[in-house]
Every structure is written in structure tokens, then in C-alpha cells.
Amino acid sequence: MMAKFEVGRAITFDFNLKEMSDIAWSDIFRRTQEGVFCWGHLPLTESGYAVLRDVGVDTDTIDRIMNNQGHGVLRFGRSAVHCSLLEAVAHGHDLTLKPIHLVIGHNFIFTMCDGHSDVIAEVCDSYEEDFYQRAQSGGFLLFELIDSLIFDYRQTLGELALDVEVMQARLIQNKDDQAIFNDFSILSASLLQFRNAVAAARESVDGLSNRHSPFIQESAQPFLERQALPLDRLAGDATTSRAILSETLNLYMGMTSHKTNLVINRLVIISMVFLPLNFFAAVYGMNFKYIPEFEWRYGYLAFWCLAITLVSGIHLVFKRKKWI
């Protein structure tokens, strides 16, 4: 049985007898023609595409799968429905989006992705229990996949939200961190990508739950419609986290600007104190032969008395004006 994640497995479900069993790829077409529902997890290789051709999936749908690797899509084809969902994987501040292709046709559903998928692995851990307890049609697998995707989104958003908190701490500490703006840009872009992935999944779920198709059981559509609400919340939470990150950056820039203003203010005060002293020094540093104070016995003392008096007066004025 398909109890563990493994690409290249196929399984049949008999909802009347509540039986399921593994089958070979070569038997999938025959079993679906007999009215047995099949689920196969196929690789994104020629061998996987060959299985799709065997069960009658049209060339246009297969071409879309081969060429669509980076964004969500929902297409109702002549022989199958193609839905591409984006699994989100957080790596530090960065985010990786991995397409998971769903091909839904008459008595079958195929999942296809490149390499390991936590979403598919989660489905493999739970589908048996749901099949035996409540499943009435193949639509239960579609519900399981969407539910697992939402769980994956919650975990990823939790990791991104934790990164936002760490970024807040770094920004508020206001240390000389040269990499902080680069990390901020990466995290902000990751939150935007995550929000777009959730929005794309929301649109796909909405289409699957509302559009009439011979390949989507009507009994499954109300359950799919309920999954739109948590997707809306996730998109809203991602937008909120990005807004919090942006506000924190604005606070950081305000703190930095305030500190810069304080430094400039001190420099202006120092400049204003020394400006008249520089003037006196420039006057008495001139090389004219006849400057009366040069011959005055108390000229040097008078200069310092005048300088101290002037500096003290400027300091007193600044204190009264509360500039220092």
C-alpha cells in the first residue's frame, strides 16, 4: 500500500467494498475503464507523461504540465482537469515555490512534482484513515491534497512570521548590521511570493468547487468550498506580516534619522562656538605690520578673556533656548 511517500506508485480504491490495492502503471487504464478509481503519484519525466497518454489525457494538458513550472494554473481540458498548486518551502529568509500538478480525469487523479513533496507526504500519512472512515468518492483525495497544502502553508507562514520577529529585533536594536537591508529585501519578497502562491491556490480551489465538470464529483465541491476560507486568512496573515515588517523598517529609519539629527545638531553647536574664535584667530593671524594689539602687553590675556566670555555667552544663550 502507499503508506509512505514514493514517486511512481499507483493505487486503486473500491468505495463499495472499502478495499484498496497497489497496481502497476500498465494496469491503470484497464482499471479505470472498469470503473475503479485510481490515484498515481508520477514523476515529471517522460515515463510519467506516458502514463497520462495511456489514460487518454489530451496533448494540450500534457504540454501545459511540461511547460508550467513556476506558477499556479487551473485548466478544464477535454479529457482532464489540470490544476497546478504551489508548495511553499522556507529556507531562512528565502522561499522556494514548488509546483504540484493535479490531473483529474474519469476515475483517476494523478499528482506530479519534481522530487520530494511534504504536501504529498502528508497526504500519504492520512489518506488511508479517511478512505476507510468517510470517503464516498475520489473527491476525498482532492480534499486531502488541498487540506495538506493549507497545513503546509500554515507551517511556512509560521516560519516566515518568526523571521519577521527576528528582523524586528535586529531593526529595533539598531546595531551596525551591514546585511540587514539585504535580509529585509529577501524576507519582504518571500512574504509577497507566499501571498501570491496562496492567492493562486485560492483561485484554483474556487474554480474546483464552483465549476461543473464531469471529472469533479459534486459531493466533493462543498467540502472544497470550505477550504477557501482558511486560504483567505492565510493570504491576509501574509499581507499583515509584510505590513508589520514594512512598519518596522520605517521605525528603524526614523530612529536612524533621529540619531543622525542629534549628531548634526551637536556639530552645528560646536561650529557656532568656534566660528567667532576662528574669526579672531584669522584676524590676528594676518601679516600686516601695524596691528595695535601686537604691541600691547596684555593683548594675549585680553584675547583669552574675550574668547572665554564669548563662548560662555553663546553657551548661556543655547541653554536658555533649550538647544542643548
Give the helix/strand class: alpha+beta
Helix and strand string, N-terminal first? Answer: EEHEHHEEEEHHHHHH
Number of DSSP E strands? 7
User: Number of helical segments?
Assistant: 9
What percent of residues adopt helix (DSSP H or I)? 55-70%
Largest sheet: 7 strands, mixed
Find the CATH superfamily of the largest domain: CorA soluble domain-like
Q: Under the CATH scheme, which architecture of the largest domain would be assigned?
A: 2-Layer Sandwich
CATH fold annotation of the largest domain: Beta Polymerase, domain 2
Question: Roughly how many Å apart are the termini?
Answer: 79 Å
**Cα-atom radius of gyration:** 35 Å
Strand order of the largest sheet: 2-1-3-7-6-5-4
Q: How many separate structural domains?
A: 2
The percentage of residues in β strands lies in 15-25%
The best one-word shape is rod-shaped
Instruction: Please identify the top-level CATH class of the largest domain.
Output: Alpha Beta
Uncertain runs are: 1-5
- Mean pLDDT across the residues is 85
Topology:
Blueprint (H helix, E strand, L loop, with lengths): L8 E6 L4 E4 L5 H6 L3 E7 L2 H9 L4 H9 L5 E4 L4 E11 L2 E12 L2 E6 L4 H16 L5 H35 L6 H31 L10 H6 L1 H56 L15 H22 L4
Parallel strand pairs: 3-7
Antiparallel strand pairs: 1-2, 1-3, 4-5, 5-6, 6-7
Helix pairs in contact: 4-5, 5-6, 5-8, 6-8, 8-9
Question: What does this 3D model show about the protein?
Answer:
The protein has helices at residues 28-33, 46-54, 59-67, 118-133, 139-173, 180-210, 221-226, 228-283, 299-320, and strands at residues 9-14, 19-22, 37-43, 73-76, 81-91, 94-105, 108-113. The protein has a 7-stranded mixed β-sheet, sandwiched between helices. With 324 residues, the protein is α+β, with helices and mostly antiparallel strands. Helix 8 (228-283) runs antiparallel to helix 9 (299-320). Helix content is 59%, strand content 15%. It is rod-shaped and about 120 Å long. The chain has 2 domains: 9-256, CorA soluble domain-like (Beta Polymerase, domain 2), CATH 3.30.460; 257-320, Methane Monooxygenase Hydroxylase, Chain G, domain 1 (Up-down Bundle), CATH 1.20.58.
